[in-house]
Design a protein that fits this description.
The chain is α+β, with helices and mostly antiparallel strands. Helix content is 42%, strand content 21%. The chain contains 13 helices and 14 strands. The protein has helices at 2-13, 24-33, 38-52, 69-83, 86-96, 224-243, 267-275, 286-292, 304-321, 340-378, 404-416, 422-430, 434-442; strands at residues 56-61, 98-106, 109-116, 120-126, 129-142, 145-156, 159-168, 173-174, 188-191, 200-203, 247-251, 281-284, 297-298, 390-395. Strands 4, 5, 6, 7, 8 and 9 form a six-stranded antiparallel sheet that branches. α3 (38-52) packs across α10 (340-378), α6 (224-243) runs antiparallel to α9 (304-321) and α12 crosses α13.
Length: 445
């Protein structure tokens, strides 16, 4: 798909499309199919859970101002994404290397869509800012034909030009008007005063080890050899259990596929009846059941301790290779939460990765919020006029490195010396926004 996408973009826009080293499509394919790499999915999902935990996002008017109608629509859009797809998108960013977020205008308002970075082609970038890119933003089916929607984003002197085109799987252009889902889209749209792309790129905080990287890499990048070794050990572990199941001798005359007189019991029959099925019985000649055979019951003990020790050792080495603390693939180290420094030291590696992703989430959602604001203004979804002046507030959960009771005690001390407002303390405790807490306190709740 990657090469076809490059060809479509090149023919459509008449430009040379560069091919970055380390194709991101390979990372996405391995993550989606789980081919030889289920470990990445486990780590990505675990880190996404730790990133969000009990964290909250609130959208308020800047400097305490009341939200306008457009600000309220932005709040609803971001809140819906935060409570819905945000955690899954973050897991995919960890597992695929990066996700692209962008606002989409629908008949019900605006929603935030997400696709993996293998559907984004960077044509020109300067100083880390993407100035021209093409995104495969959507797909649909028309009969048996699969169709793709490509969007070109190009910054041009303070403005931004968006171009839309539809392609089928063979690369043939399809008229937008012929596709019901995209019939309302113009072939070209210009947005004034847009000095940043209309999409956000949520990168995985993992070093790709290349100069001036554009595309992110999965959190397990560089640990592939260890993961292959762990997968191999999993197969050996499973085989060990299968080969050490109890096997019972049963008179061959009771079998549907009984032995003919004088027919030897060769290893192929044993494999067919035991190793390749869940049947524990072996067909034996009657003399064997009279005590003249080699065995009637066989059940050797599995080497569980040695097998489990190697599993844990490989898992810990993968955690270390990914820059993570113990407790992602292995058992979390036993620590006392009464000692904050001890907890922070034990889990700090994982916390730094989680914190880096949180920083990227804050930046990405800020970009998406401003992009959605521009689209709302362009399509007059709310009142005309200036942009919505909103503030995004992220209340990130810190239970990974400290206990909630300890944090609450610290906040009480801050409140006692006047360094924290009562509504802030209530909002932290109840999960309300600062405005909701203030209203509740004013009403005597």
């Amino acid at each position: 798909m990657w090469e076809r996408f490059r060809t479509w973009a090149s023919n459509w826009l008449g430009v040379q499309v560069p091919d970055p080293s380390g194709t991101p499509a390979e990372h996405a394919k391995r993550y989606v199919t789980g081919e030889a790499d289920p470990v990445t999915r486990v780590i990505a999902d675990r880190l996404a859970s730790l990133t969000f935990a009990d964290s909250t996002l609130s959208v308020t008017g800047r400097d305490g101002a009341t939200l306008t109608a457009r600000g309220a629509l932005l709040r609803d859009t971001l809140t819906r994404f935060w409570r819905g797809e945000a955690r899954a998108v973050t897991a995919q960013a960890f597992g695929k290397g990066g996700m692209v977020l962008f606002p989409v205008v629908t008949n019900r308002g605006v929603r935030i869509a997400a696709v993996d970075q293998s559907r984004l082609l960077v044509l020109r970038a300067c100083g880390g800012v993407v100035e021209h890119a093409v995104l495969l933003a959507d797909q649909c089916a028309r009969g048996r034909e699969k169709l793709w929607l490509a969007v070109s984003f190009e910054l041009t002197g303070g403005g931004q030009v968006l171009r839309y085109a539809a392609f089928n799987d063979g690369g043939r252009r399809v008229a937008l008007a012929d596709v019901a889902a995209w019939a309302s889209l113009p072939e070209e749209l210009t947005l004034a005063n847009a000095d940043e792309p209309m999409f956000a790129w949520l990168h995985c905080p993992r070093d790709s080890r290349v100069d001036r990287p554009l595309y992110g890499v999965p959190v397990t990048y560089g640990a592939e050899a260890l993961i292959r070794e762990l997968n191999e050990h999993a197969r050996i572990y499973r085989r060990e259990y299968r080969l050490t199941r109890p096997m019972l001798g049963l008179d061959s005359t009771l079998w549907r596929d009984a032995l003919r007189p004088g027919e030897p019991m060769d290893i192929r029959r044993v494999r067919r009846t035991v190793q390749d099925s869940d049947d524990p019985f072996i067909p034996l000649d009657a003399p064997a059941l009279d005590g003249h055979g080699v065995w009637q019951y066989y059940a050797p003990a599995i080497r569980h301790e040695a097998m489990e020790a190697r599993w844990q050792s490989l898992s810990r080495r993968i955690e270390q290779a990914c820059g993570l603390s113990q407790g992602i693939l292995t058992q979390r180290q036993a620590v006392s939460y009464a000692n904050k420094d001890e907890v922070r030291a034990a889990l700090y590696d994982t916390f730094t990765v989680v914190r880096a992703m949180r920083d990227r989430l804050e930046e990405a959602l800020g970009v998406v919020c401003r992009a959605a604001d521009r689209l709302m203004e362009r399509y007059a979804l709310t009142e005309p006029g200036g942009r919505a002046d909103v503030a995004l507030r992220f209340d990130w959960d810190v239970s990974l490195i400290e206990s909630s009771s300890q944090t609450f005690d610290q906040m009480l001390k801050l409140h006692g010396i006047g360094a924290m407002r009562t509504e802030e303390l209530r909002a932290w405790q109840t999960g309300e926004t600062a405005e909701e807490a203030k209203e509740a306190l004013a009403g005597g709740a």
